[in-house]
Structure formats: structure tokens, C-alpha cells
Amino acid sequence: MELIELSPEMQKFVTERHLASLTIVTATGRPHVTPVGFTWDQENQLVRVITWAGSTKAKILQRSEHPLKAAICQVDGGRWVTLEGTAVVSADELRCSEGTKRYATRYSEPKDRGEDRRVIEITVNRILGRA
Description:
The chain is 21% helix and 44% strand. With 131 residues, the chain is of the alpha+beta class. The chain has a single domain, classed as Roll (Pnp Oxidase, Chain A), CATH 2.30.110. It has a seven-stranded antiparallel sheet with strand order 2-1-5-6-7-4-3. A hairpin with a 2-residue loop joins β5 and β6 (79-90).
């Protein structure tokens, strides 16, 4: 996979404190859209969204046998970025811990969800936007 580099302006934009919309295309083709906080991991080409097992977004991904198409879109005035790829959800302790740590750095320390914590990881293969 070719490394996707964000411009310095885009890199700054995805670290500022903004919320975004997460869209997951369900197995039936219906989009599920929800507001989220997210983090961008340049090195691993991953978007991470922390959530909990009972959330609709986690349930949709848990029911799927394969990664589903997903996109994160952040907008602030004329600046915007969309990060597209395939999404999976995990209860793996290390993956959830990494997602939670990154979320705390960008936003604030989240409430502890213990064993209920999940992390959605989107492997990004396309970026659109203007910063």
C-alpha cells in the first residue's frame, strides 16, 4: 500500500479539536452516519474512533463478516477533509488502549468503558479535502 501523506495544513487540521461525521456503508448499502471524535495515525494510515460495544456503529461492524466501507468527514468553514477506507471494530485491549490514548491527546480523557470499550479502525486508502 502506498503511504498517503497529508499536507502540513491538513495534518494541522486533523489534530485541531473538531468533531466529524462517521459514515459506514452497511452490508445492505444503507449509510449509517453519526458524529464522532477521531484521530489520524499517519504512520499506520489509520483513523481511530473509540466507542462502546452497544453503539449502533459497533454493532454494524461486529455483524459484518468483512470490513465495510467507511468515511470520516471533518468540516470547519471552508476547510474540510474526508478520509475514506474500510472499517473494522475491535475489542482488543491494546488496540482499544491506543485509540483511547490518542483520543485523550486530541480531545480529553474519555470516560472509562472497561471491557465495554471498542475501537473502530478505518484503513485509509483515499483522502479528499481542502485546508
